[in-house]
Design brief:
Blueprint lengths: L4 E7 L7 H11 L1 E7 L15 E5 L5 H11 L3 E4 L5 H13 L4 E6 L7 H9 L10 E4 L2 H9 L7 E2 L7 H10 L10 E8 L5 H14 L5 E8 L12 E4 L4 H8 L4 E4 L8 H8 L4 E4 L5 H4 L6 E4 L4 H12 L3 H15 L4 H9 L5
Parallel strand pairs: 1-2, 1-4, 2-3, 4-5, 5-6, 6-7, 8-9, 8-11, 9-10, 11-12, 12-13
Amino acid sequence: MKETVKILYLYSELGHYQIPIFQTLVKEYSAQISVVHWDSELIRYSPAAVEGVKYYKRSAFNRSDLFSFVADFQPSLVYTSGWMDRDYLAVCRWLKKNNTNCKIVAGCDTPWRGSFRQNIARLISRFYLRRCFTHIWVAGPLQFEYAKRLGFGNSQIIFDCLTANTNLFLNEHRKKNGLLNLDGKKFLYVGRFSEEKGVQILLEAFSKLERELKHDWKLVLVGQQEHDKIKVVASEKIIVKPFLPAEQIIEIANGCSVFILPSISESWGLVLHEFAALGLPLLTSDICGANFTFLIPGYNGLKFKNGDMEDLADKLKKFVELSDLELNRMGQNSEKISRRISVDTTVGNLVSVLVN
């Protein structure tokens, strides 16, 4: 594909992890990219400038404007992050009907749970979703199960929808020679201080560990307070930091020993890929979708029963009791597993629809 590939992204909220994907598409596939993305006062992230990529705010388009914009751009590939925006769906449906050369891909990070809502989606997909998309791009095996139930065939499903910025995280891991900093051991959490992220359970489990076992481990929490009922207070053993740029979070992580994702609800959990690539052992709740790709219990980490504070406290204790050698071996194994998905494989899967 030496000729320019025109790619249209119809996106909800952009994240920093999209930037290396855009850069690789432009560099390796001579892509010309237009990105329409949601914008509001609640969205904190402002996408970085990338040569060959133009950004457009969703609020600037009504449905008619969006149709005109797409018709003028004439993409050969369209990606939409799910199917929550009705105007995006209308554009995709029109393109699929009127431009048979255009490949139209929907992203899916939602795992199959067998819920009432998902079963309704499964029943109406033939009349709704499959009229809009030629392919569906899934994050992992649970999302593959959902895609199959929506009626997409194997040849219409591609993988590796979500990736950490492996160009950054893996390189940083190599710089520190692949070894954990075990001088003052620390558990690390990065994310929102919200109920669904399991922060309260984590605080309670760490407190229980403090009461029952003498140890010198600390808990580092990086994020932002979202609910008054979840009180995150710094102390001698609990370090609290605000949201920070990726490079500063990596610096903090390089001084930590285990990454924890205690979510009560988590479709995927991109942070597991990021901190596995940095060579940290993982401790996750069993609800996290990315577990199936980036966690092998006993090999590079442990998991606990979703919402079970007692089980989480028990797993924290197991890490405290591990030797430095065992922790380092788990961290090195995390780095190995993180290579299952990369920026290159994610981009390769997306553009593969143009040669099928």
